[in-house]
Design goal:
heterodimer, A: about 350 residues, alpha/beta, Rossmann fold, 2 domains, two-stranded antiparallel ribbon, about 50% helix, about 10% strand, globular, B: alpha+beta, five-stranded mixed sheet, CTU1_C (chain A), ATP-binding (chain A)
């Protein structure tokens, strides 16, 4: 016996929304989903008319839905935005090259300009080459750091005013949990922000219009709308720390679907005790990017790769930054510690 | 035991990619409910790493199940009795976006 939509009471319900518990038909679901993203954008004042916005697109489910919904809402509500797609090619054979084909199709489907920036041209290293040197344990650190900068570089090349990414509610909740588990107070304080302010040269402000959208709803939206997206897991991700937070969160969600929003809510309302030492924002002495250390993470990681010292960016070696900057040679025991990699 | 009915199973691309399922689209004769179907899938279709698909009695959290294009939560989940020409789709949410 089919369940009727609780909104229109006419059509058959196709899903039960985890957020509200309501059963909705396809059309009412699309309407509710799109309206909620619109409300998120309006309430947080994410965009101003006339702005050029770069949609970070990977060809995956979140960014495909983001591109689709941004285009739709821009037209429906007259945001007055000029939209573009920015994609990052990390150089992962069998994963990224396939998903980039999807982005190129998206470009034609949504009729938006597309810019692809690659690690190869920006850093001289593909993820394949990085994993060959670094192994499978800390490779995600490299990728995440490099991608952040790569997106900014792409955005600057395209002269966009803002970037928007497809991070969803599950992602944000996972990040809150990860930062609690790792004791990263500085990140814990920042990670639930829906947008970042412009923090200096070379950094473009970015926001997350899908911040309150459940991953389950994003997948179902894409499925029912028959959106073209690429769905496999990055081949280098199995050991990523985030996987643990994700598994935990998914188990919680199956017992209590509102957990995801509740974790975000907790993260948003945390305040840090007085007297806790917080990193101070400065700039990298080498490349000028924002950094809380003398050298930004990207430069440190790159230095490590180029010198055959893969562990240079992993763990805490801040004392060595000064040495690297002034081009002093490292002692033998320092070199040995930084070289060792467990595969 | 009810008479077997024709059931169409569809797996999202990612299940094939894991090396778990070798057929992403197939029709089977089956009699029973979803719980029994999952057992059947585990025994007959999952080549390796069944833990990526099933957890205990049910699918791994993060995997969505649609019965005739509707969320199985609306149909009784594991207790749903399969009917003739039912279309079951398994979609994963557990990958990058």
């Amino acid at each position: 016996m089919p369940v009727l939509c609780s909104s229109c009471s006419e059509k058959r319900a196709v899903l039960k929304r985890p957020k509200t518990g309501h059963s909705l038909c396809k059309e009412c679901f699309f309407g509710a989903f799109e309206e909620e993203v619109h409300q998120t954008i309006v309430a947080a004042k994410l965009f101003k008319p006339g702005e050029t916005v770069g949609v970070a697109a990977s060809g995956g489910k979140d960014s495909t839905v983001l591109a689709h919904v941004m285009k739709l809402l821009n037209e429906r509500h007259g945001y007055g935005l000029r939209l573009m797609l920015i994609s990052v090619d990390e150089g992962i054979t069998g994963y990224r090259d396939d998903s980039l084909e999807t982005v190129k199709r998206n470009q034609q489907q949504y009729e938006l300009p597309l810019k692809i920036v690659s690690y190869e041209e920006l850093y001289g290293w593909t993820m394949d080459a990085i994993v060959r040197q670094v192994g499978l344990k800390n490779n995600c650190t490299f990728c995440g750091v490099f991608r952040r900068q790569a997106l900014d570089r792409g955005a600057i090349m395209l002269k966009v005013d803002k970037i928007c990414t497809g991070h969803n509610a599950d992602d944000v909740a996972e990040t809150v949990l990860m930062n609690v588990l790792r004791g990263d107070i500085a990140r814990l304080r920042r990670c639930t922000a829906i947008s970042t302010a412009s923090e200096g040269d070379g950094v473009v402000p970015r926001c997350k219009p899908l911040k309150y959208a459940y991953e389950k709803e994003i997948v179902l939206y894409a499925y029912f709308k028959k959106l073209d997206y690429f769905s496999t897991e990055c081949i280098y991700s199995p050991n990523a720390y985030r996987g643990h937070a994700r598994t935990f969160l998914k188990d919680l969600e199956s017992i209590r679907p509102s957990s995801i929003m509740d974790v975000i809510h907790s993260g948003e309302n945390l305040s840090v005790r007085e007297g806790v030492k917080m990193p101070v924002q400065g700039t990298c002495s080498r490349c000028g990017y924002i950094s809380s250390q003398a050298l930004c993470k990207s430069c440190v990681l790159l230095e490590g790769l180029n010198r055959g010292l893969p562990k240079l960016g992993i763990g805490k070696h801040h004392r060595l930054h000064e040495k690297i900057l002034s081009q002093q040679p490292l002692t033998e025991s320092e070199q040995r510690k930084l070289k060792s990699v467990d595969f | 035991m009810a008479a077997p009915v024709a059931v169409h199973l569809e797996f999202g691309q990612i299940f094939f990619w894991w090396g778990g399922v070798c057929n992403v689209n197939l029709c089977v004769w089956f009699a029973g409910d979803m719980k029994q179907l999952l057992v059947w899938i585990q025994q007959n279709l999952l080549k390796e790493r069944p833990e990526l698909f099933v957890q205990g009695d049910t699918v791994r959290p993060g995997i969505l199940v649609l019965i005739n294009d509707a969320d199985w939560e609306l149909m009784g989940q594991l207790d749903y009795q399969l009917e003739d020409r039912d279309n079951i789709v398994f979609i994963s949410t557990l990958h990058g976006g």
